[in-house]
Amino acid sequence: MDGNCKGAIYKGNIEYVTKKFGKLGLQKLMDDMKDHGHKLDLDSMKDGLWYHLDARMQFLRSTAKLFELNDDQLIELGRSGFKKSTIAQLYLKIAGTPKKIFEMGPGIWTHNYDVGLLKSEYNGPSGSIFRIVDFPAPLIFFQYLIGYYTAALEQTGATNVIIEYSEVEKDGESAHEYMITWE
């Protein structure tokens, strides 16, 4: 997959794997990634540096496969990604409300990914939308984002966050759509 993501994206996921499966689990994950042609040097990884998306997608695939993550655990992995991302936390302090998250979402995306595009529609708690285009990632990535977006909204005080994911055609382009409601 072409493109890159920032190192900050990994931070919470690495902590999640270490807490749930121990340092040996993390080593097993790194070994599996290496077996698939992706070596990550966690000691030298920096939040603001770019890393290949192929490695990111393999990180998610390897984590899900090795630890047999179900959909709920994948969502929890997404939550961990948000909670430990210093970049996301900085944006959230500026945003502070669900409306601002939808306004700032496209900028947050381009800060963290150099490919694809996030579009947003804020319609309030009755059904706001995030739509990702030009980002041909595996389904596991889009499932992961459910947890990421849920954690972001909850941190603004939103409750009963419900996110429905689907693949759609909108304005002549394929998109990954998140219909999001909350109280």
Protein described:
With 183 residues, the protein is an alpha+beta fold. It has 2 domains: 4-83; 96-181. It is 53% helix and 19% strand. It contains 6 helices and 6 strands. The chain has a 4-stranded antiparallel β-sheet. Strands 1-2 form a two-stranded antiparallel ribbon. A hairpin with a 2-residue loop joins β5 (162-170) and β6. The radius of gyration is 16 Å and the shape is globular. It starts with a strand and ends with a strand. 33% of the residues are buried.
Straight-line N-to-C gap: 37 Å
Which percent bin holds the helix content?
40-55%
The coarse silhouette is globular
How large, in whole angstroms, is the Cα Rg?
Answer: 16 Å
Mean pLDDT: 91
Number of domains: 2
Major sheet, described briefly?
A: 4 strands, antiparallel
Strand order of the largest sheet: 3-4-6-5
Instruction: Work out the helix count.
Output: 6
Report the structural category: alpha+beta
**What is the number of beta strands?**
6
Question: Which residues sit in consecutive blocks of at least 5 with pLDDT less than 50?
Answer: none
**Percent in strands:** 15-25%
- The helix/strand series, from N terminus to C terminus, equals EHEHHHHEEHEE
